[in-house]
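Hi support team,

I submitted a single chain yesterday and got back a structure, but I'm not sure I'm reading the token output correctly. Could someone confirm the output below corresponds to the sequence I sent? I've pasted both exactly as they appear in my results page.

Thanks,
R.
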Amino acid sequence: MTNSDFQPLVGIGQHNIALLFSHYLKTQQIQNHISEEQDNYVIYCDAAHLDRAKVIFEQFIADPMNPKYQKAAWHSAQATQVNDDEPPFLDVLKSHFLAHAGIVTLSIFVICWAVYVFLNLGLDKSIFQFQDVASNATVLTQPWRILLPAFLHFSLLHIAFNTMWWWQIGGDIERVEGKWALLQLFLISAIVSNVGQYIVSGPYFGGLSGVVYAVVGYVWWAGWLAPQKGLQLSKPIIGFLLFWLLLGFANLLPVNVANTAHLLGLASGCAMAWLKYKV
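Hi R., thanks for writing in. Yes, this is the structure output for that exact sequence:
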């Protein structure tokens, strides 16, 4: 079978999702291959089975975590040889970390950790709070201060949790839609969640979690409204984060949680996906 016998089927933003679908197609006797094109993984399949492959993809993208796809990947996977020429584990980890995220994802990640380190070295945390904005007209002369609470974290667990989700989901958005789309999402959701939390509870809060819930909401609705983009979150992950949100509002968590920031962040992310793909 030559390259002319293959037709492009779909472009998927996440390599692992593309591989999963490719393996499943092979178990259905549909020959295919994956080509990386402009930050997208395009699946080319046998032209004679293109219509059938489209139907299979619609079923797949509606429930990509179905065990039958994992089973297909297991049966289709080929063994790899381990040899002495393989790069060290830390080099592989670093390259994977950098490859998954673009400049915006990594910049926000680094800023959060830099602020956390300097705060533990004695930097005054009031710099990052809404305190000065609330007491005078700083918001007019220094509007960036509205964003600063997003970079403020109060514990190692707090920053690790937020930056892990930001790297994972924000990285997916940046790879699929580009740095400006992710930057816009960050700015809008940070402003909305920070201002909302200040109105409800005052200036003493911080964290990237409002933005994290925004990227969760964005990918959740983008996966629903435009599945062909390849932005997807599994139902268990969405369920876990929504359950965490409910626990916060029920005051059942052992730590203080910026519940309003979480809710407004989620709402802003969902709204931006809806405006982009539905309107």
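A quick pointer for reading it: The domain at 90-277 is CATH 1.20.1540.10 (Rhomboid-like fold). Let us know if anything else looks off.

Best,
Support desk
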